[in-house]
Amino acid sequence: MPSSSDSPLYTMEPSNKACDTCYRAKLKCVGREAPPCARCVASGHECTFDGRRKSKITQVEERVGALEAELESMRAHMGVLARQVDALGAPKETSPTYPQPAYAPLAISAPTPSTHAARPPRKRRRSVTSSSVDDDPLADIAAGAPLERMLASPLIKYMRLSAESSRTHASTEADDPVAAGLVTPSHGQALLDAFYAHCHTPLPVFDPATDTWAGLRRSPFALTAAIMVGALFAREPALHARLRAHAEHLAKETLFAGDGVELVQGLLVLTAWGGGWRTGGHQLRLAMEMGLYRCLPHLVRTGMGAGATGTGGLEAERPLVVGARVWLAVCKAEYEMAFNQGRPLLIGEESSVALARRLLDHPLSTREDSRLVAACELLAGRQRSHLAWSGTPGVSLEAAAAEIAADNAFFDAWHADWMAYYDAVGVPHRHYLRDLLHSGKNHSILLVNARLLSGIGADAESLAPERRAALLRCVRAASVLVRMATGDTSYRDYFLSMNSMTHVAMAFAARLLIRFAGLVPDAVDLRQTGRDIEALARVLKRGPGGGPLAAQIQDVLRRARRRRVLPPRSRAASPKRAVSPEAEPESHVQGEPTPESQVQVELEPAAEGLGAQGFDFGDFAFPADLFGGCEDDTNIFQWLGGDGGDWVSPV
């Protein structure tokens, strides 16, 4: 029989150890020298000594091995902590800091353009000796501080912030698009210039005066996102694909680490020209974590730069202006994704939107900031009806018509207010910013009033008066939108610079116009409508990636002509229009809608309303059900694919 030194598991001699039954019961084995023992005889068990037993040496070896594994784990954790301590004093590229929630001290620093030069190490001092008695939780409650702030001592908070700062994504040389071999400095500068030339006005999240090529080198992610879009308009598809892959790789690294307003700016660009719903949600959370929603209220409280003296005083407020601008862009994107996807609005009634107009009073604001302010005001005005329709499955016709009438009045007042503002600041009449007002108003009218048209059939003459008025407003709005994209206006050139979802929105307006031609042909210039839609397809072909969308529009147009919804292609003059053109040529250029008083078509009043069942807006939660009984089953929203892409409206 092997000894304990030969094998850790062995069979004991009966005279030396207890029997198997007594061993398992941990009792003294009486009479083991002459088996069976007394206990086995009394209990009737078989007295055996065949059980395998572990020796004490084996148990000691296992315990020592477990201790060694635990020590190795502790050594690894200590190494991580040592690297974190070293990182606190290491040179680091800094980004502007923004006002944190009211319970935290306000830190304002100017952005420093990156030169990739080494800086002397700076030691950050933090007071960790203050007593928890000095922290008044009542003051924290009044300031709206989170519960974790009230429960954590200053030392715990310091340790948490230190750990978070160590996880912050530090840009490496490999992240830079130049160092990665994607572009040369001169080529990258040209792509950034193309981005500013095409995309700055539609989405003014950067300031070309400060966010130059050298300045954006401090943030490889924001720079890569910008030149990615520049490559799209420079017609370099292969480079665009490589830059997009690199930008998406950097974006993934910001999910659990990273801060800085440049990350939010890059996510905004990536969402608009290459991302979707998920990246939009990430940018919202990141902006909230940075406290960007506090920037504009802080500027309002401090007088919008009125107390700043000299250039240095104003430059100290530049991070706040940038933060306010980026937060408005985040709000705009969130409104659009919620409205156009029929999903809940995550930001609710954001108070910064009510103060947005004050941003234009700051000396460091730009003219393009009015684009974000105007869009946020328009989208915030649609929030009430969005909440009412998305949460109420059975709304009466009277209540729905009253809500839409209030929205129409708001759209008119918003448009007139901003036109007066641009008159006051000297914006030219044919400027693109004015065209954005026209497109935003008409697009909102089209979407809001179309909610009353669900389920209408071929007999439009039997419509209720409220639905008839909504139909005529939709006809005018869709006609204006298609005319703006194809007419000789400044908007047509900038329209090609908008993202692909804006092109989808314009194509959707063209699709609705064909549908309206089948419903009320007397209210539509049929021959001119066919020409305008053909021109829209040609315009879309000129844009990057607009070929498939143009082919879809042409397919719908061919089917409409084949089914005699629209007349065949002809050079003959159009018949007399039921909707009168604008009186002033400039209004036609700007895309002004035809006044309702000039509509000549009169439809027969409805014989009866919608009945006692009420008006159901539930089908509008899914854009594929926008119109029942269409003459063809092609729906412009379905061109987005099956991934639930984010339709960004041309507001």
From TrEMBL:
Matching SUPFAM superfamilies, A to Z?
A: Zn2/Cys6 DNA-binding domain
Where is the stretch described as Disordered? 91-137, 565-598
Gene Ontology CC: nucleus
Which residue intervals define the domain Zn(2)-C6 fungal-type in the entry? 18-49
- Show the GO MF annotations: DNA-binding transcription factor activity, RNA polymerase II-specific; transcription cis-regulatory region binding; zinc ion binding
User: Which domain of life, per UniProt?
Assistant: Eukaryota
Keyword terms of this UniProt record: DNA-binding, Nucleus, Transcription, Transcription regulation
What broad class describes the main subcellular location of this protein?
Answer: nucleus
Q: Does the keyword DNA-binding apply?
A: yes
User: Which cellular compartments is it found in?
Assistant: Nucleus
Stated name of the protein: Zn(2)-C6 fungal-type domain-containing protein
- What species was this sequence derived from? Cutaneotrichosporon spelunceum
The major lineage groups are: Eukaryota, Fungi, Dikarya, Basidiomycota, Agaricomycotina
